[in-house]
Amino acid sequence: MPCIGPDGTLTESAKALLKLLEQPATPEEVSARLGHPLFSVRASLRELVGAELVQAEGGKYEITERGEEKLQVSPS
Amino acid sequence: MTEQVQQTPSLPRLGAPAPQFEAVTTLGTLKLEDFKGSWLVLFSHPADFTPVCTTEFVAFAKIHPKLRELNCELMGLSIDSVYSHIAWMRNIEAKLGQKITFPVIADLDRKVATLYGMVMPGESKTETSRCVFIIDDKQVLRAMIYYPLTTGRNMEEILRVIQALQTSDKHGVATPANWRPGDKVIVPPANNQELAEQRTQDPNLECKDWYFCMKELK
Q: Which residues in chain B are contacts of A26 at CB distance < 8 A?
């Protein structure tokens, strides 16, 4: 699902994904836990990595400091 | 003198890797490679806010759960903007009660339409025809269906083709005309004399002749 709006706002699915990535996870694990299709998770992770809100290492993804800050300032 | 270069439309080939692309969709920017590991029905429709296309979108949405059961995703495409797609999908939900759950590519620059040979100038120079591309979990193009602008597609046939291909992959068989799940399948013809003779003697097969044998799948 798209994660960041044109004005920089996080979508609800992005917030859920960032919250989940406070613990490192593979795309498959994210898909299973959130119930989102894998293609959608892959696209979302690519977008979040591009925005430096998530980083990838060894096949797993984890929220960055910038991602944590963004999450804190984004109202639920 | 200015040289004009014409881009020759191409058709993808069955059995070859499906042409890769990255596209703006109603579910964000997607790449074909995002779908690796699952089958994909990629289909095009001529235009948003048109009646035959609307019936097709409702029909595709209705088979989406069944496709997912077959480990198959669904993605549409037309040469319309993402805003038009969003408005039309909201209209379908409001007027016809059907939520559209799959992504739809907004192919305004016709990049994907050109890669996949979706535009048939004899029908329309600006709209894609009704094309269906069945791409397997390894991103190989396995089947194509091309329908004209006037004629809505048959969802049961699209499901049937996917089930037939998956059956062929799993069991190393072929499927006869009008095959449906549960029907007998075709054993690949013998390609040497010894095997041809064996086939006619095999009690587990129903052979009309050495090259034409069928069996039930267990």
A: none
